[in-house]
Here is the input.
Amino acid sequence: MASPLTDFGANRTRETLGTGGPSMPDVLDPGPTPTQTSAVTAIDNAQQSSEWSGVIRNFATAMSEAATDMHQVDYMVEFRLRTSELAGAGGKTLLDRLADFGFAWRDIAKMIGVSVPAIQKWRRGEGLTGDNARKLARLVAGCEIIQRFNPLITDVALWFEVPIVDEAPVTPIDLWATGNQQLVFEHARVDTESRVDPHITMDSFDPNWRETYWSDFETFRAGDGVLSIRMRDG
Here is the structure.
């Protein structure tokens, strides 16, 4: 027969080890198995990694957008400064510069918003107002900046004539004539990180351009360099 002291020790042992007693389980709770613990840890790590990836991606996007905005501010400031420098050069000098770029008088007239006879008068030193002198200076300054943006544009006048997208006959001339100089500059950019998709340029110019300009025909430049039209494929 066990002594009271022996019974007391056994009860204490059972309580300590969890092998019996009124309020304790008969066996120790083993807790999660190593496999369960590893899986939970891996899931937690993956979630944390995904969250950090999202934070880094958002930060990179924000930095890219900020850099693009700063660059836009920089070239627009340069555009205004260069325009002011050229504004007093005189109509003949500015028109000669545009002729050197390769522009036809009709294209200059369209972008400035005047008639071809007005351009011809300015060539003779007649009738040029301060407002029109600034418009000419803006166009010259814009051409200089475009060529600096993209050294591949060696024929800036021809570049102005090329449709922005295949699906519409809209050209940089049309953008400039409607006061969308910033869209022209963005379309001219060569750096891949901040270059704007031509379709986005068109969306900014006219959100309904797909419906407005849809046609069974498309424009193209023939072998002799003349813009022509043809039926679209398919």
